[in-house]
Design brief:
With about 290 residues, the chain is an all-alpha fold. The protein has one domain. Helix 9 packs across helix 10.
Amino acid sequence: MDIRAIVMGVAFVAMWSSAFTSARIIVADAPPLMALSLRFLISGFLGIFIARMLGQTWRLTPRQWRATLIFGVCQNALYLGLNFVAMQTIEASLAAIIASTMPLLVGLAGWLLFRERLAPLGIAGLIAGVVGVAIIMGTRLQGGVDIYGLTLCLIGVVALTFATMAVREAASGGNILMVVGLQLLVGSAVLSVFAVSLETYEVTWSWKLIAAFAYTTLVPGLAAMLVWFSLVGRIGAVRAATYHFLNPFFGVAVASLVLGESMGLYDLIGVGVIMAGILAVQMSKQIVPRGQRL
């Protein structure tokens, strides 16, 4: 048993899931795209500075450069940008649940688009995931959730799914922290264009805003990405992605503890079903067909 990998996986999930709560705090008092662009700028330069101190270079492989651009645009600019805007009108727990379905979408895309073989356990997991999402969405729609914000989150998780398919290219070839820093700067550059064009500078300063911004810049923004790429490099993308099944629970738990967001019975049932579906899909990918070697 790789204890270090387990600790890294749980740490990544905790940091990644907490980002929705800190983002909810930020967008209540600051323009979402402007705040996110600044966060990426600071995190990116910090990452590059530390990478250079550790002896890492700018000499990435062509596959790393391609993956860095894809991550910067799809994960940072699209996925996080859309989620920051969406959380002006929807709860952090709902945004976290939607984003947590990414492993299910990756499995579905591989099955339908790339004709990847999926074991019966994986198919059952996809079905469970759909059922879990339907349970939560049905309850939230009846409760009057903002459709615009919900739509932005759904588009964002599709962009995150596409970005995740490139993670293996970014994690291979070394210079992990340099890759993290560069893809953050790509996201900052893209978002800054939209922030200047669409937003006005209106900030309500408070200690809570400053603390949330500092936390989201250093922890989910930099540390989580470093842990994720390191975990993928240690145990591979498929096994690392298994830890995503914990995201719905952590996302809901942190939002409830910090923001006091309430969760109904059907929400909790849906979270449990989604977690089971994600775990089933990821476990099915680790099943080696007879005649193939590990």
